[in-house]
Design the sequence.
């Protein structure tokens, strides 16, 4: 068994991923691909500006399992090195709306035709908001996520974690896997785009249905820790402190009733 485990390899063994995106979403995608066995090059620079600060503040988390390469976009030699690395990479993770580290402004058309390119941005490459480098919190506000968080009657609260960026990273990793499969089958590998604005709506599933139906007159708003489609789902005061109780189906509800001595 030990010998067999030692011979085990990841599904993406032999795949090289160049992660140049300054967004947290690119780091999440890179981490997932690294866990699948890919060699991920985590490009770092001191020239990224304020937008990259969240990613660099969590550097230890996002660089784990990757190779680190520190470059400066102000250096012609470093830009050349970066382009050469891109030419030999199987996957490129970028965020063109926020990167100062985008090959020194050189177009991605120079990338190999069989390279899987994934661009993770706020609004994608089309539409009136394309190119606007909105943050995770701004996307939360624009898509209504922030209107669903916090306590009813109180101001909206942004989620303390970059949930939209995290979700976008998962979608990006899935898109890359699909691109690699298409390349293996010798199919076209068109560029992959992940927009935070689009991804954010996947977190609003239980709020969108009434908003888009005849019940639109019913105000969807902040619910605290409650859930729109399940109850009980909240934190409740008990004699010895607070209790988190979530029942997502009938079986869980019946077990709760049994535990509190109220099976009826």
Sequence:
């Amino acid at each position: 068994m030990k010998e067999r485990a030692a011979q085990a390899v990841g599904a993406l063994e032999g795949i090289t991923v160049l992660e140049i995106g300054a967004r947290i979403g690119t780091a999440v995608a890179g981490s997932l691909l690294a866990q699948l066995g890919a060699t991920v090059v985590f490009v770092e620079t001191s020239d990224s500006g304020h937008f990259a600060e969240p990613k660099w503040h969590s550097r230890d988390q996002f660089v784990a399992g990757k190779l680190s390469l520190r470059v400066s976009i102000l250096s012609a030699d470093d830009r050349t090195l970066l382009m050469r690395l891109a030419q030999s990479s199987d996957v490129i993770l970028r965020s063109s709306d926020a990167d100062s580290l985008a090959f020194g402004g050189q177009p991605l058309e120079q990338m190999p035709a069989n390279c899987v390119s994934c661009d993770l941005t706020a609004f994608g490459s089309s539409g009136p908001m394309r190119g606007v480098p909105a943050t995770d919190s701004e996307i939360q506000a624009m898509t209504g996520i922030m209107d669903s968080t916090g306590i009813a009657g109180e101001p909206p609260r942004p989620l303390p974690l970059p949930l939209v960026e995290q979700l976008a990273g998962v979608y990006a990793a899935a898109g890359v896997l699909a691109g690699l499969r298409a390349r293996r089958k010798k199919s076209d590998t068109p560029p992959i785009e992940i927009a935070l604005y689009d991804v954010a709506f996947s977190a609003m599933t239980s709020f969108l249905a009434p908003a888009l139906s005849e019940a639109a007159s019913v105000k969807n708003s902040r619910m605290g820790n409650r859930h729109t489609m399940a109850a009980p789902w909240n934190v409740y005061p008990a004699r010895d402190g607070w209790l988190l109780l979530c029942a997502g189906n009938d079986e869980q509800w019946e077990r709760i009733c049994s535990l509190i001595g109220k099976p009826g």
